[in-house]
Design goal:
Strand content of chain A: 15-25%
InterPro entries (chains A, B, C, D): ATP_PFK (IPR022953), ATP_PFK_prok-type (IPR012003), PFKA_ATP_prok (IPR012828), Phosphofructokinase_CS (IPR015912), Phosphofructokinase_dom (IPR000023), PKF_sf (IPR035966)
CATH class of the largest domain in chain A: Alpha Beta
Strand order of the largest sheet of chain A: 3-2-1-4-5-10-11
CATH architecture of the largest domain in chain A: 3-Layer(aba) Sandwich
Radius of gyration of chain A: 22 Å
Enzyme class (chains A, B, C, D): transferase
Shape of chain A: elongated
Oligomer: homotetramer
Largest sheet of chain A: 7 strands, mixed
CATH topology of the largest domain in chain A: Rossmann fold
Pfam family, one (chains A, B, C, D): PFK
Subcellular location (chains A, B, C, D): Cytoplasm
Number of strands of chain A: 11
EC number (chains A, B, C, D): 2.7.1.11
Number of domains of chain A: 2
Helix content of chain A: 40-55%
Chain lengths: ~325, ~325, ~325, ~325
């Protein structure tokens, strides 16, 4: 393999730049030419492709977002789109790809490989940590710390005013951000999509707290929680508790996506970028590089896409004990 | 004056603890006994009053929220409530008060003084910076930096995805947080209650940006903006621009209230706490301590309550120049 | 076991409070009485022991330092000291201990158990991550991020002035903080006690950088590096490179010990505090609770004390590739 | 005036990029061509000069350091150096300059103007806040908050171990950073170059603290303090207090120079950059733009260079009261 390209796709995540840097510098180290593709599959189709050098990735390891920009591509879902993308790669002499993204990205890469034989190795870049095949995804640790910072700030107000706060964090299908920011933030309860939390349990927890004269409470809710979003849940709880309870809701939203990556995310991203590149050089394809138990592993895209990532139920148990 | 009390009232703001500390240590320094009242006027009515010493305020200068807790009191708006409050102060031998809060707090103090002759000096504690009689209020600088941190994070995603973001910050009657976080965050436009921004101007600004191939834009909206909240404005803009524009909305909410105060807020809070105390000792009453042009000044409550605080229109002009 | 006590000993580390909280609330959950001992073994000897409840550990999960205070005790190294300590534990009816600290702490606990039969389970609290028996110690992740924040700040100046900076981080016997903050901070070289870096290699790396017109460089040095401390190394390098090279040194020092713990450290501390407590209840003694490959494990004190913790040499290789 | 240039010179300071951005976008707004000069006077001499557009300063408002790089130039102190610089400016058709820096920078500009008639308006960029003619300099607020963050972290360890810490902050001739970070950090004492603090007073303060059973203390020392640097002072204090006092020293160093600027610094830098530019357009020369009492003012270079900036002694008084 003499020439490869790297791109980011799907939602951006802190650490993507550190990952791009590792792919580019790893390629330089191994004597391979490396190109960047802007805006994911859209840029591949449009030929927004440029050569990168060691210098192209100077001073980016600490930056959030992605210097290659990202997009979700509808055109790549069509046969015509993929044909154009292939033609562009051919025109640039690109023989293999490193794709930084999530399951949508990997699904596209798998279909593309089946049709055109272009090998792709993936690196898991998504704040949600919802990918099978790696303990953690790039961006997750930063997102948890950003959410935690918000929980800490809100606790100041909750304590000062004896209030109950429902805080909605990201995680459409996954409660990882909710559980980790909830435990770390000392939440009384964490509501996640993976495990049903009946509203009666929420009411029970709040009442138990009051009986121990806990006057403020924080409940962290993942956006994908079955009982509805934080605002809906708060409304229903308000209807079920008597008297003058002061309940507020905060939805953290897109602030969780950005910011300078944590040390953990930069190191993880560097290892996975280098791992994906070196896997590609060694002949891997249709796999995602991951770190499980501190070891680099490659998991077939079809598994990362198909298999659910179980949540650590020990952690949910811990929330209960620690909020006693 | 031999014995005074301090309390916080209204919405909490970062730096209130630094202010409490300055009042308490200032009282110790001047040989005056000092008491704390918990939960604002509610605690005054309920007699939730306790003696404080230098040690009571150790290690709090860096903490958000208020160790004295805060509340908005309906009972104090009644003659019976104020009678009970006065009886409690009498029972504890308290001769004067330092009230840390906003206009609601000062209105209560003024009425109370007229009825019972208890002198109160105020210190402006509110993140909104909407009080006449001081350049800045305690908590404002921290809130601006918290909002700015969110703007910075969101810009990472906005740039990576070529998106337009509407970010709603606090400020029901005041655009101070919006203007300062907007300028500092490099926003394309800032919408504030003090100055009407027609939607046509928003559309114009976005289109001008596109014509200069600016692909991402950030618009900061104060919650009290006349055109509606950020979600409503975003909806209406979406309807007015053609094609496939990706517009998102984030509402920062209560995260802006908490967190460790900045250096500026801790110093301001210390100066105002000490200034309020020393004013009270010197015989002031029904006034708020403020800092204008770096000088300590006392402004009558009736002025802080009645007079509007003008916004610096030079700053609005600057937004336009800087986003060119 | 009906009554246990918890204490912190040795250097303080962010997350110790989260660990204390987990021990206390875990004990409450399991119906066991729990006491706190102030200032480590010194407080045990002096009888500075007090009962704790769920409420004692409210609002501390986010705080650096340790509410139980810490100390290194010379008196506990004497037979008389340990006799007094035992008498105090007897007087308070304490049947078992959770010790949060490092190898000095565990050595004391082991000797104490051998002499008096008081079972102790340890939790690894030290920023250095130099303990065998756990992947990470409590406080390490926070210290790395604090060091990284400094590296990021210094890079601003290094780039602006084309300077070379030597940054000394903590780690007397261990290069963990240096390696992780170095990789994450994009350092050109990392010097650690575990692997000798000859000065000639440092000079070579700097010259290679210049040949690629890298004008600024950052070299992270662990304080225990064999070639001397950062200032000494910088002096010697200056003597070996020709001409007008601008070399500066910054020693991060004690700032690395404090601060609000990261999410990772709070969760790790919570798991290890609970794990240590539940181990003690289950009859463990003379062991340290650790997390290896995401599983809770108990390692005998004699192993944590005796066995070296190997550094991940893959990471050192990665520094070279990434700084190309 | 049709074409101007902007450069940064002297030590870098957070906010310089925001200032460059304001100069560039202000020039675009006013229809003037704007060039950037790299590495201060060195780049002017070497002709390292390039045209800038609105897009050149996108996405830099939040970055520490300076994209134009900075340097202290020995060659510009020679007549030959200045001749070359003038020739380069002539060759590029540059009619006026905005210089972002401190007194060294302004001295050079004044001499240059006297010799060659090139008008320069300055903007005060230095973390030390030691320039007459403005209440605050660009970078000062960020440096204070960075120092404060370190003080907060160290207080965690000081409290946990009952230790005394001497923390040395930047400020060769000026105690501004020391005073502000000291008050905000709750220091027991602040030592500054402007006011002699005899060692006997330090010992007295520490002893008074102990008599009130304050077990930990923080003393902030400006690097230019007459009694010596923090390490020397700590040594001498150690010799003067009896018994087993645990005294530590931390020197914050270059971490204070970098980092994302605070909101305050970004707004100040924007106002001063625009103010300097508009002054230049209006015919000003040999003056520095400053903000005094929230008004834009222009002060002759000879005054900013010659006149001392007095320190606010009220703040020193406040340290004493607040540490009681």
């Amino acid at each position: 393999m003499k020439r490869i390209a790297v791109f980011t796709s799907g939602g951006d995540a802190p650490g993507m730049n550190a990952c791009i840097r590792a792919v580019v510098r790893g390629a330089v180290y191994h004597g391979i030419e490396v190109f960047g593709i802007r805006k994911g599959y859209n840029g591949m189709i449009a030929g927004d492709i440029f050569q990168m050098s060691s210098h192209s990735v100077s001073n980016i390891v600490q930056r959030g977002g992605t210097i290659l920009k990202s997009a979700r591509s509808k055109e790549f879902m069509t046969a015509e789109g993929r044909q154009k993308a292939y033609d562009q790669l051919q025109a640039h002499g690109i023989e293999g790809l490193v794709a930084i993204g999530g399951n949508g990205t990997f699904t596209g890469a798998m279909i593309f490989n089946n049709e055109y034989g272009v090998p792709t190795v993936g690196a898991p870049g998504t704040i949600d940590n919802d990918l099978y095949g790696t303990d953690y995804t790039i961006g997750f640790d930063t997102a948890v710390n950003t959410a935690l910072d918000a929980v800490d700030r809100i606790r100041d107000t909750a304590s000062s005013h004896d209030r109950i706060f429902f805080i909605e964090v990201m995680g459409r299908d996954s409660g990882y951000i909710a559980i980790q920011s909830g435990i770390a933030g000392g939440a009384e309860l964490v509501m996640v999509p993976e495990v049903l939390t009946p509203l009666s349990e929420v009411v029970e927890t709040l009442k138990q707290g009051w009986s121990r004269s806990k006057s403020s409470s924080i409940i962290v809710v993942a956006e994908g929680e079955e009982e509805g979003n934080a605002t809906e849940i708060a409304e229903r709880i308000k209807a079920q508790v008597d008297g003058d309870v002061d309940i507020r809701v905060t939805t953290l939203g897109h602030t969780q996506r950005g910011g300078a990556p944590t040390a953990y995310d930069r190191i993880l991203a560097s290892r996975l970028g280098l791992g994906a590149l070196e896997g590609l050089i060694a002949g891997q394809k249709n796999v995602m590089a991951g770190i499980i138990n501190n070891e680099l592993v490659y998991t077939p895209f079809e598994d990362t896409i198909r298999l659910p990532k179980p949540i650590n139920e020990d952690l949910l148990r811990m929330v209960k004990i620690l909020s006693i």
